[in-house]
Amino acid sequence: DTEVTQTPKHLVMGMTNKKSLKCEQHMGHRAMYWYKQKAKKPPELMFVYSYEKLSINESVPSRFSPECPNSSLLNLHLHALQPEDSALYLCASSGGALETQYFGPGTRLLVL
Amino acid sequence: SQQGEEDPQALSIQEGENATMNCSYKTSINNLQWYRQNSGRGLVHLILIRSNEREKHSGRLRVTLDTSKKSSSLLITASRAADTASYFCATDGNNAGNMLTFGGGTRLMVKP
To answer: Mind listing the pLDDT tens digit for each residue in B67-98?
Structure first.
């Protein structure tokens, strides 16, 4: 199973809402990632979890809160987002450093 | 920050022709990867080339790496309409963590 799944596929939320994005992999990968991608731009790294611990936070605003409940799951909690946060949010996993990353299909988020 | 720059930004060719995309990067690397992304979807890993390798093949794909020039190229031979997608190079920036930095991408259109 080389699949990374993400839910929901689409999400529309208001600036006062609280929502969560979910990501799951069953490849035994110990590193998981959140990326943000705007239209016609490359993915930008947000967070890296390694062995269920946050190892990299790329100066992401606190309205984005990651969580890694176990080695297979990665969540991104959203609160008080701004319209400019509208983007495709991609989750990925890898077996470790310097390894290929496997991406999920993404959650397309629209903040109104 | 964006490590790699890709050119061209957009490429339109006829089915059967070859497509060449170039990537330049700024810092030393352990490896360089190429990914493909269909419109609004997740990224799919195509090929990884390590810093001590100069050329790698996978099916209709050929990747070269010139570490002295800090550049890489991706050649797709005998292109098909189904190759229409965005192509990104990604480098690890020779860091000990799990960070990938993506280039700006090349949008390839293959006309049937």
So the answer is: 999 999 999 999 999 999 999 999 986 665 56
Q: Which of residues 87-106 of B touch A (CB under 8 A)?
A: 88, 92, 96-105
**Alpha-carbon span A38 to A43, nearest angstrom:** 7
- The mean per-residue pLDDT over the stretch A30-40 comes to 94
pLDDT in the model for residue A56 = 85
Inform me whether the C-beta atom of residue B39 falls under 8 Å from chain A C-beta atoms.
no
Establish if B10 touches chain A: CB-CB under 8 angstroms: no
Structure confidence by residue, pLDDT tens digits, A92-112: 999 866 678 999 999 999 999
Check B98 against A55: CB less than 8 A apart.
yes
Which of A45, A102, A105 lies closest to B99 in CB terms?
A45
Report in angstroms the alpha-carbon separations of A5 from A67, A93, A103, B12, B97: 16, 11, 8, 32, 24
Using alpha carbons only, give the angle A76, A82, A86 rounded to the nearest 5 degrees: 65
Report the residue of B29, B100, B107 to disrupt the A interface, i.e. the one with the largest count of A CBs within 10 Å. Answer: B100
Number of H helices, E strands in chain B: 0, 11
In degrees, rounded to 5, the angle at the alpha carbon of residue B54 between the alpha carbons of residues B49 and B57 is: 60
Q: How far is A110 from chain B (nearest CA, A)?
A: 14
Average pLDDT, chain B: 91
